[in-house]
Amino acid sequence: MEASVSWTVDGERRSLVVDTRTTVLDALRERLGATSPKKGCDHGQCGACTVLLDGRRVLACLALAVACAGAEITTAAGLSPGGVPHPLARAFVDHDGLQCGYCTPGQICSAAGMLAEAADGAPSHATADLAAPVVLDDAEIRERMSGNLCRCGAYPGILAAIRQAAR
């Protein structure tokens, strides 16, 4: 069975017809040519496919395209319109927060979503005082980014980059 889906992807309105079993990730990569989100595990375990869906972090390999009809989807490429690096992208470069780079787009989207969540006061498992403003210390950042894996082990640089961008 097929269905029509319309999204705003990185600021551009896009429409397509997809099989109702198609994931957001497959529609983005295979049908719309958006190669920023990566297919890592295809099981929602690595975070390489993380995008922002209506401003919230989503694992695109687990989200069905038809369930997200009408959404605004932002990939890591969409965070840097016109080729101007997003502050997170710049911080990842400054702090060597990448090696092979495969997980980097998902890391950057997740970090952008995480910073927005923290600014909104959303607690995490590591938040000590649920009534106090969120303080993005290292433990808090690590907990909030725990769904994004880096096989190269660039975690110290990723942490430093997010710390810089959070300032």
From TrEMBL:
Q: Name the pathway.
A: Alkaloid degradation; nicotine degradation
InterPro entries registered for this protein in UniProt: 2Fe-2S-bd (IPR002888), 2Fe-2S-bd_dom_sf (IPR036884), 2Fe-2S_ferredoxin-like_sf (IPR036010), 2Fe-2S_ferredoxin-type (IPR001041), 2Fe2S_fd_BS (IPR006058), Aldehyde_Oxdr_Iron-Sulfur (IPR052914), Beta-grasp_dom_sf (IPR012675)
PANTHER family from the xrefs?
OXIDOREDUCTASE WITH IRON-SULFUR SUBUNIT, OXIDOREDUCTASE, IRON-SULPHUR BINDING SUBUNIT-RELATED-RELATED
Enumerate the UniProt keywords alphabetically.
2Fe-2S, Iron, Iron-sulfur, Metal-binding, Oxidoreductase
Q: Which Pfam families match?
A: Fer2, Fer2_2
What CDD domains does the entry give? fer2
Query: Per its record, how is this protein called by name?
Result: 2Fe-2S iron-sulfur cluster binding domain-containing protein
Gene Ontology MF terms in the entry: 2 iron, 2 sulfur cluster binding; metal ion binding; oxidoreductase activity, acting on the aldehyde or oxo group of donors
Describe the location of the 2Fe-2S ferredoxin-type domain by residue ranges.
3-79
